[in-house]
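Quick log. Single chain, no ligands specified.
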Amino acid sequence: MKPVTKENLLEAIQKVEDQGTLLRTEYIGSEGCRCVIGHLMTVGELAHIIASRQINNKVELLDLDIAPEELTTLSDLQQINDQSEYLEDFLKAARNYMERHYETSN
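-> predicted structure:
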């Protein structure tokens, strides 16, 4: 997974906007669209998750090697992704989160 930095997170949000559709409840769809966290993952990590889901029917971010403080940020963004009804809602909420999160943590 790409490092969880402000720049990489903003890039992932931009990639969701560029693909023009919001993918919820999975990291990558059959058409290759990804959710915000999916855009941070390598092809190998996505393949591992898909294979694990087929076996266990459940894979969480906890299955990846992520520091606890980074996991909180990723979980927050994933929640925004999955709870947004429209792409525009996600973009606004995700960018607002990033401004608040990185304003208070720096």
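The chain has a mean pLDDT of 86.
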